[in-house]
Amino acid sequence: TVSLSQLPDQPADAPTTPRSLLACRRAGVNPDDLVHRPMHEFIKKYQDHEIARLHYDKKEMQRQFDVQAVQRNYSDVTQNGISEAEYNLMRKSEVLKPLVKEFVQLKKTEFKSERQIIEEIEHQLQKQSLKQKEIEDFLERKNIEREKRQQEGLKRIQEKEKLQKEKAEAQIQILMQKSQNFQHLKEEKQKIQKSENQRIYEQQIQKQQHAEHLQNTKRLQLQMQLEEKKEDGEMRRQLAAQNFQQKIQQKEQEQREKMMTEQQRMEYFKQLRQQQLEREKEEKQRKFSQTRQKIEEFELTTREKKRAQTSQAQQKFQKSMETINQRQEQQLEKLREQAAERDRLARQARETMEKIQNEKKQRVFEQEKMRKEKFQQLANTVVKSQKLKNEEQQIQIELRRQQAVRSVQTGLYHKEKMAQEMQRKIELMKEKEKKDQERLDAIFAAKNKMQASMRKEQLEKYFCKSGGHGSPKIE
């Protein structure tokens, strides 16, 4: 494994550790671009020492710049750590791949005559400078538009998150108010039930006292008429006792029926509350799914727009290059015809000069030979300088293409990071809702338990006061 912390000055292998790859992704650099390429590879490729030296210097300068940028990101990663979204992105096994096709394809032309070289150099330099300006303006406009779209997308996402948060807080407040109202109703019902039980208990005591008074009067009457109506009095006592027991049993039956109806009513309220909570939960899940679908649709549309824009730009650039090449070929053809005409005139002039000046033929021939040699040397130097300029322009275009590719890669990296952070926020909101629901369920369970215990104590007190006869077992 190769790490950026131990990267040599001329590395032979690309970095492979997770933090190093994350630093490369942050900078938008391909890890293979950090590998040092020796001079003999360029000499073998270009077959010219000066052109190879030019490519080597530019490549090494760009590599050093990339190494510095990646090491800055690596120090930031090691000192400040990484976010959860970047950790999820680190788990992907793929290293950065080129996502944008070649913007420029230069066509190498061969120059056949000395005069064509001089004229073609000026014409080509003007056209290439204009084309480079157009490419730079196009890339700047695209970068500005991309930054605007990213800022607008971030604003929309922040506004949506704020609205969702406010809705969730409003729903929680509504639930708390409903729970408080429900508790208040329960307390009022308990007070009414308590007063009703107290009234029933007092009525029972009065009835018992009245029954005892009747029994005492009957006993006095029975004692006075004991001798005459002994058997009749015994029967009346038995009937009175039976009637008293029947009344007590009827009262107990009525109390049991009231308790059963109250329990059924409480169960019905509880079921209604559970159904309402389930409906609210389903509504929240539906809203979250809708927001997630909208985010995914927004990402798909932005990707498709970017692809369409890049393909249109490439097609326009290729068409413009084809038209430029056609014009250059037409101009070269005209220059060839002019050169042929000039050569023909030169031959005629030489023939006339040979006829007129036979004596000066040798001297003119030597002068012409020397002139041609000088011109050939000059042409060779001009051709070589033109080749160097063309190679330098090609290197500059390649560097701009790499910068465009890296800007696209960094944009995609930040978008993936934002998507991971958004997914994490949604998960945290779901967990918060789940905890709030569990808290509410626990509160309702504790309230129900407390109400059951209070009801149990009331019943025990009632049966203890009534004498404990026939009291049911309370669980």
Automatic annotation (TrEMBL):
Protein name in the entry: Uncharacterized protein
Organism: Trepomonas sp. PC1
Coiled-coil parts of chain: 141-195, 244-439
Assigned keywords, A-Z: Coiled coil
